[in-house]
Amino acid sequence: MKEPDLPVLDWAAAMDYMLKREGPLSSTGMSQLTGMVNSKYAPAGGRQPDIQYFFGGYYASCSDGNTIEPAQYAATDRRNIMIAAIALQPRSRGYITLRSTDPTAPPVMQPNYFCDEHEMNVIVEAARIAYRLANTTLLREKYGMVPTPGYGDNCPGGGANPTDEFFRCLAQYQTAPENHQVGTCKMGPRIDPMAVVDPQLRVHGIEGLRVIDAAIMPTITTGNTAAPTVMVAERGAEFIRSRHQLYKHIPFSGHRNYFGDSSQQDDDRWHIVHKEEKWVNWKWDRNWNWENRRNEQKPNWIKKQNTPVAAASN
Ligand SMILES: Cc1cc2nc3c(=O)[nH]c(=O)nc-3n(C[C@H](O)[C@H](O)[C@H](O)COP(=O)(O)OP(=O)(O)OC[C@H]3O[C@@H](n4cnc5c(N)ncnc54)[C@H](O)[C@@H]3O)c2cc1C
């Protein structure tokens, strides 16, 4: 941009914020801005954009203590802004694994960027759109936006009319992880060798263990991941609460495990309970206690479980 890159955190900025909640300290600069766009590879209908832009720049930075007038700044000390393009529906899959048996050793994280050509095509188009945006009359003439000198010099095909090859090369040099890693414990059916949790977030084959975080997403959401993670957490909490309410009053059955059943049997019970409408609509008392409601018809499995252990063994 054509304005000088002045450090903006000084007393005036501090006063502005403390007295009026205004000025550079009241903002995170251009990172507040994002945008989504459909590339020509996006799913038809335009409702699931496959490119997201993140913007950077105009961050509040500290002065080194000297007061320098804008006129003293070299022409090269201009404000930079950044436009980063994200491929929202990547097809390449990376992995995370242990590096060694040493528990303190950092894991191996292998992202496998661009293993699938799809992402490269999307990113090249995204870069073209960003380039066009930066080249609009308003940004170019009013704000003096020009490409950062020297950026991409090691890639052939740059200049005023950059080629697709230039953007491909640039993508390979400049691609970095976004902060939205997911899928290391994906949800899926038991028969899927890569699936870790079932639809109720229970780890396949391990009783009493759930994973409830961004790791369970089988594919990444089209956009930022914090809100979807909160939704996963809400669902997970609900699963745990429901299960607790369902089993809380089942007497000890003599098995070692309090619940005394495999996951499959739990599933069956769950379905029995939910299929019986009468049972679903049944009003529990405030302590979730069905003992006080002897007149209600209970599903057979509850009756069975309620049979005293001694009687059952006769
Ligand atoms: C720099 C950055 C910026 C981001 N910005 C955004 C954004 O603007 N918008 C958005 O939607 N998403 C954003 N994200 C993504 C979002 O934060 C994550 O998708 C989300 O937080 C994932 O939630 P999680 O519960 O899966 O994991 P986390 O939020 O990482 O939670 C894991 C928790 O486990 C704890 N933990 C780890 N190991 C142990 C252990 N051994 N014992 C006990 N506790 C442990 C950690 O301390 C942490 O609290 C950002 C991520 C990063 C890193």
Automatic annotation (TrEMBL):
<protein>
    <submittedName>
        <fullName>Glucose dehydrogenase</fullName>
    </submittedName>
</protein>
<dbReference type="InterPro" id="IPR012132">
    <property type="entry name" value="GMC_OxRdtase"/>
</dbReference>
<dbReference type="GO" id="GO:0050660">
    <property type="term" value="F:flavin adenine dinucleotide binding"/>
</dbReference>
<feature type="domain" description="Glucose-methanol-choline oxidoreductase C-terminal">
    <location>
        <begin position="90"/>
        <end position="233"/>
    </location>
</feature>
<dbReference type="GO" id="GO:0016614">
    <property type="term" value="F:oxidoreductase activity, acting on CH-OH group of donors"/>
</dbReference>
<dbReference type="InterPro" id="IPR036188">
    <property type="entry name" value="FAD/NAD-bd_sf"/>
</dbReference>
<dbReference type="InterPro" id="IPR007867">
    <property type="entry name" value="GMC_OxRtase_C"/>
</dbReference>
<dbReference type="Pfam" id="PF05199">
    <property type="entry name" value="GMC_oxred_C"/>
</dbReference>
<comment type="similarity">
    <text>Belongs to the GMC oxidoreductase family.</text>
</comment>
